Amino acid sequence: MPKTILAVDDSVSIRQLVGHTLRTAGFNVIEASDGQDALDKLKTPVDLVLTDLNMPRVDGLALTKAIRASAAHRYTPVLLLTTESEPGRKLEGKNAGATGWLVKPFQPEQLLATIRKVLG
Amino acid sequence: MSDPNGISERQFSFCEEARDLLSDLEAALLQLENDPEDQETIGSVFRAMHTIKGSGAMFGFDAVANFTHNIESVYELVRSGGLLVSPALISLTLRARDHILHLLEATVSGAALDQATGNGILRDLEKVVGVSHPEAASPVARGSASPAISGAENVYSIRFVPPSDVFLRGTNLLPLFAELGSLGDLTVTADTAALPSLGALEPDRCYLAFTMQLRSTGSVNDIRDVFLFVDEGDSLTITMLAGVTAQGGPASPAAPTGAATATAAAKPVTSSLRVSANKLDELINIVGELVTMQARLSRFAVDSGEIEISYIAEETERLTNLLRDNTMSIRMIPIEATFARYRRLVRDLAAELGKEIELITEGGETELDKSLIDQIADPLVHIIRNSVDHGIESPADRRRAGKPSCGRLVLSAAHTGSQVLIRITDDGRGIDPGRVRAKAIEKGLIDPHAELTEAEVFALIFRTGFSTAATVSSVSGRGVGMDVVKRNVEAMRGTIELASTPGRGTVITLQLPLTLAIIDGLLVRVSSQHFVFPVAQVLECMEMNVADVHGRRRGFIEVRDKLVPLIFLHEFFQLSAESVTRSHILVAHTSLGHFGFVVDEVIGDHKTVIKQLGPLYRKVEGLAGSTILSDGGIALILDSDRLAQSATNEAVASAA
């Protein structure tokens, strides 16, 4: 059974890049354009959530908090996509319940390595 | 990227997206000019910059990303309330937006980038914001691999105390250990000390801590990287225990990074301490008493029915067991040192006898109790002498037999469960069962018509009064025969076996317990007296009517179609017989075959710390030692081999 990853980003090109990288590596990918869209799509079970921080409607932090508050996804790993200009947000992310983070820009291999680190 | 057609499909799609974002940005900026405090609009301006920067760096638009980074920083300040939106800022941002578009198009078409305009905008921005934004702070530095001192293998001790809410952040710890294991040789020990009682346990909290030892060529940073997501700053302690420089590698001076990151790297702590063996014996004795007291406490706790006492008893039991195992392990030393002694012995013997012999040792790291090593040394010397003297032929004989002139003697040690196997293998002339048999008949050890299996024939070699060497050489055969070896081994509760193929060689196998101090015993009762039977020797327990036991074939019972002689322990030890209707029989394996031992009751398992008997009782037949029971009483440990031996002697004597 391939693992399913929910990729959340408001940038179409990032979603495409992430989606392509993950699908090539054998993962199932569900794409969401922002936090609210992600929450709607979390009705199906996923193994990992990969989310951007800055998004319209529901942002990455709020999404993480919502995931931790839900019974079905309490223990689902959440990876944040951050940029080096937001060191403080890394801590905010952790406090919100994020499992880890990935600093943009990243190489496809870094993305896969980080996901494997969390999913095993 | 000079060829417009050279950009990839994904880069193309980024350009499309960036153009959209830039026109949205333009609209948002114009709106912001009318309503400078609209947080919603500020947010969308920031997000547009953020996406262009982030995606740009990922799709190879470094110039775009670098420039946009500066604008994004300004709007981050605006968003957090550190800077107010002014008409000057808006027009500057609009200029910046145009420049971003230029950078984008120029990158795609491969045209020269207009650096001057960009720098001009940044200079003006600095004036507006009043903070400098050095472009040098390159935001697109790709993640660089952490420097590792290649070729040097280090041993790290890692202590990892996960934050207690680690599971609530979706972290699975197992992949971390797998990842760490991929760096080198890893041992993980879980520390459960912080586990609360069941009632107070919250199932999604982490109460465990982990102590790991890693042998790896990786650096401290490589290890820290593994724990990147779970390290709260104080949850990870890494100590470098010892560094081993790889052989043949380039002689590299200690890399400064290694020295800097490993400030906590203590000096190698592999030092050892010499302690007198007496002190260790004393410690073992005390631990033995503690184990006994512990058993009393556990019993009391169960009887009392108090939960709180039970907790304490369980915890004490765990600690006591740890202490016992630790104390035992202090006495465990590798057999290597003993093996090394034999190298010299074999060399000298071979020279004396004019033979060529190569001694090969295997499993020298096998650990066993120091007292066992001391006691096994002499029997081993004897066996090796025999192999060198009688087993391995002279170079001329070997060549004639078509073997290499240099003989091989292999000394190996290995663990099998709670036992240690020591094997002495030679590729000499072997032992001819026919000759052994003839010799035994000549010495009157067996009847000329006796039917013996090959194993039984070889077992004769260990009988008193047997020596096969035709001539008494200076090396072996001076009266100390293999019978003494066997007795020594049995005194250690071990066994010895010999197998041989004529012309091919001989294998002698010694099986020894790991330690002399503790055995797994079966506690039984005979009359009012308790005895402990080594559990390794017990094959089965049976319960029978006394009438049947004392029935037709007195002294024997049938077990699985075999007649097994019985030893009535209350008769043997002259204890008053109990008037019971059922008795219990332990069928045990002894050196003389299977025997049934009749007892009144089988009580159960008993971890037995052996205490030597006082000098007064040491000569009593059939006892191997004593132990203290959990109620403070004393039980004697039975030596089933001796029991069988003396019962047989008695039977033979009374029949004669």
Account of the protein in words:
Chain A is 43% helix and 22% strand. Chain A is built from five helices and five strands. Chain A has a five-stranded parallel β-sheet, sandwiched between helices. Chain A is globular, with a radius of gyration of 13 Å. The two termini of chain A are 14 Å apart. Chain B is an alpha+beta fold and 656 residues long. Chain B has five domains: 126 residues, HPT domain (Four Helix Bundle (Hemerythrin (Met), subunit A)); 101 residues, 2-Layer Sandwich (Alpha-Beta Plaits); 55 residues; 179 residues, 2-Layer Sandwich (Heat Shock Protein 90); 138 residues, SH3 type barrels (Roll). The longest helix of chain B is centred in the middle third of the chain and has 28 residues. Chain B is built from 19 helices and 21 strands. At the A-B interface, helix 1, strand 4, strand 5 and helix 5 of A face helix 1, helix 2, helix 3 and helix 6 of B.
